[in-house]
Amino acid sequence: MTSPNDSNKDTNNKHNDTDKQSSDKQNSLLAGIIERATKSGLGRKKLNPSAVESAVAKNMAKIHSNPTKLRLAFLGGGSFGTAMANLAARNGCDTTLWVRNKRTVKAMAKTQTNKKYLPGHKLDDRLKYSHDLAAAVKDKDIIFIAVPGLAFRETLKNIAPFISGQSIVSLTKGMEKDTFALMSDIIKEELPEVNFGVMSGPNLAIEIMKNMPSATVIASESEPLRHAVQAALHSAFFRVFASDDVKGVELGGALKNIYAIAMGMAAAYEVGENTKAMILTRALAEMSRFGVEAGANPLTFLGLSGVGDLYATCNSELSRNFRIGNMLGRGMNIDAAVKKLGQTAEGVNTIQQVHEKATREGIYMPITHALYAVIYEDKAALGVALHLMEAGFRSDVEFVMAHDHSNAALTAHMKSSASKTADKDSDKDK
Question: Which residue segment(s) compose the domain that 229 sits in?
Answer without folding.
Answer: 51-244
